[in-house]
Amino acid sequence: MLFSDTYKEIKTNSQSIYKERGSKFISYTFSVYNEEEIKSRIQEVKKNETGANHYCYAYRLHPDKSMCRFNDDGEPNSTAGKPILKQIQKNELTNILIVVVRYFGGVKLGIPGLIRSYGTAAMNAIKSSEIITKMIKEKYAVLFEHEQMNDVMRIIKEHNLEIIQTDFQISCKLTFLVPKKQSDMVLESFKNNHKIKIKYN
């Protein structure tokens, strides 16, 4: 269930470096929208940072922030991926992947040192990114006959709706996006015309 009309993303990918007692932590942020993109970005980092000891990451997806995962990649349990995820949560971000690469510097950092280092590396990467706020939009499909075309287009124009797909064959189907906070008003406009059917996509 979404209780907000907006969500936050990073506008551009970023990179930053953090050093702790000889170990070097290179962090990457990526704007991502599905698990395929995430896999591809992790592979990209591994290719760029071939000599690293660990490739730890965390991500969160969807406007409702409903999917999140983290991976410690061989570091002690919850000392790497979890502090990265905490920074994502603290900054209320979604559709983001943060990968923190560690080059071991010969000195063991201990559990608190690892948690602090991975958390700081992730925080620095987020600080290097521009954060933008986006409007949550809902997707609806309108089904109607050709005679109702003018009525439908009038409502679309009136509410400044974003058309994403049209199919004007024998019957007509038009798919649009509406900001969540506007959706009740828009649905009411369509339902006032009983010949138009509308469904949530």
Number of helices: 5
Helix percent band: 25-40%
User: Per DSSP, what share of the residues sits in E-state strands of 2 or more residues?
Assistant: 35-45%
Look at the helices and sheets and give the structural class. Answer: alpha+beta
What is the spatial order of strands in the main beta sheet?
A: 2-3-6-4-5
**Oligomer kind:** single chain
Q: Low-confidence segments, ≥5 residues, pLDDT <50? A: none
Shape: elongated
- What is the N-to-C succession of helices and strands? EEEHEEHEHEEHEEHE
Task: Note the gap between the termini.
Answer: 16 Å
Average pLDDT: 93
CA-atom Rg in angstroms: 23 Å
Largest sheet report: 5 strands, antiparallel
Count all strands and give the number: 11
Structure summarized in a few sentences:
With about 200 residues, the chain is of the alpha+beta class.
Question: Could you please describe the fold and organization of this structure?
Answer:
Helix 2 (81-90) packs across helix 3 (110-127). Helices cover 30% and strands 37% of the residues. It has helices at residues 35-48, 81-90, 110-127, 149-158, 183-191; strands at residues 6-10, 14-20, 23-31, 54-61, 67-71, 96-103, 131-135, 137-144, 162-168, 172-179, 197-200. The mean pLDDT is 93. The chain starts with 5 loop residues before the first strand and ends with a strand. With 201 residues, the chain is of the alpha+beta class. It has 5 helices and 11 strands. The radius of gyration is 23 Å and the shape is elongated.
